Amino acid sequence: MVSKYARGRFVQLLIVLWGAATLNFLIPRFAPGNPIRERLYTLSNSGGINQAAIEEMVRAYDKDFGFDQPLIVQYGRYLWNMAHLDFGYSMAQFPAKVLPLILNALPWTIGLLLAATLLAFAFGTVLGALMAWSGSPRVLNYLMAPLITLSAVPYYLLGLILVYLFAVTWKLFPLSGGYTAGMLPSLTWPFALDVLSHSVLPALSIILAAIGFWALGMRGMMVTNEGEDYMIMARAKGLPGHWIFSRYAMRNAILPQVTALAIALGHVVSGAVLVEVVFGLPGIGSLLYKAISGSDYFVIYGIVFMIILAIGLATTVLDMIYPLLDPRITYQHR
Fold first, then answer.
1. Which SS3 state, helix, strand or coil, does residue 97 take?
2. What pLDDT is recorded for position 147?
3. Quick count: other Cβ atoms within 10 Å of Cβ 181?
4. b/e for 76-112, b at 16 or more Cβ within 10 A?
5. CA gyration radius, the chain
6. What is the mean pLDDT of residues 29-51?
7. CA–CA separation, 3 vs 12, rounded Å?
8. In the chain, which ranges are continuous DSSP H helix?
């Protein structure tokens, strides 16, 4: 049976999603002007649309998007569509709908950022724990300055440096793109290896920038755990050093790291926007950048809602598995 706490967390998740959907609905409608008219006038100024036909097109778009109905009717229809993940039509690519655009871009972002985030978390957490452990080699202490430097450098700046070194100067990896132009996406080894070669530099820029954050956070938590009573008791009992390190020190220090990981995994959906733009990857970050540049409001609202949904689900799931990480945590009433 589902516990009372789990049901409560699920209700909280629904409330958060309802609040996010409501804000998505209200913000554009309280903004001055008509976003569709502004978009069409922009296209008209660039020579894309005859200015005389703009008002007729605005009325047609208002009907398609439901803007000609009362606000309460729009709101009810909007919530129904949100519950079915129907974000409407893309204004820049009409009649293409928003959800297929997001789903087409999502595998590129998840494949890159999920792997990069988990690798940075794993290496950074272990490295930070070793840096704080008294039994580790002293040479690890010299990693503090490089890690602090890397944690302060943005993803996109590292990406530009890596592109210059490994794509322009030494030509070891492709310059940009998700795969080589002219190749047809397919489930074959040549295409998979081509995608992998294009993903090395963007993934490396994310890992190098994030590994310092995870390592410094874990090191700080390990230092605070050194003087705890359970650590003193474990040493007094004569337990092996590796057992104390993994079962006592790391297990207690990793909980804040897991919370940060939940938030980071939620942000995987949004993508490292500038990294994807720098490397020309066809992911969510590039889609969001194009939507913002082209005032494609419904794509923006759809991506924002998906980000909130991903963060909410990630934090809820990890909240449920906390008792597995630390048996002292329980959600049962005593």
1. strand
2. 81
3. 5
4. eebeeebeeeebbbbbbebeebbbebbeebbebbbbb
5. 25
6. 64
7. 14
8. 4-30, 35-45, 54-65, 71-83, 98-109, 115-132, 144-152, 155-162, 189-225, 229-236, 241-243, 251-253, 255-266, 273-279, 284-293, 297-325
Structural contact between residues 222 and 128, judged by C-beta atoms closer than 8 angstroms: yes
- Token pair for 292: 């913002």
pLDDT in tens, 263-295: 777 666 555 677 777 787 888 888 888 887 777
- pLDDT recorded at residue 272: 65
Per residue in 168-203, pLDDT tens? 888 888 877 777 777 777 778 888 888 888 888 888
CB-based contacts of 225: which residues, under 8 Å, 6+ apart? 231, 248, 249, 252, 253
Residue 181 has what pLDDT?
A: 76
Dihedral of CA atoms 90, 95, 99, 102 in degrees, nearest 10, equals -60
pLDDT at 229 over 50: yes
Structure tokens at 299: 């794509």
At 53 the pLDDT is: 62
Q: Could you read off the pLDDT of 78-124 as tens digits, one per residue? A: 888 888 888 877 877 767 888 888 888 888 888 877 888 888 888 88
Q: Which fold has domain 99-282?
A: MetI-like fold (1.10.3720)
Give dist(CA 113, CA 110) in Å, integer.
Answer: 5
For the whole model, what pTM was predicted? 0.75
CA dihedral (55, 57, 62, 68) positive or negative: positive
Contact 9, 319 (CB under 8 A): yes
Structure tokens at 91: 């204004």
Length of the chain: 334
Structure tokens at 16: 């958060």
Residue type, 281: L
d(CA 217, CA 109): 25
Check if the beta carbon of residue 11 is closer than 8 Å to that of residue 322. Answer: no
In the three-class reduction of DSSP (H, G, I as helix; E, B as strand; rest coil), residue 295 is classed as: coil
Q: What local confidence, expressed as pLDDT, does residue 1 receive? A: 43
- CATH 1.10.3720.10 residue ranges for the chain: 99-282
Q: Show the tokens assigned to 178.
A: 């998700």
Question: What residue type is assigned to position 79 of the chain?
Answer: L
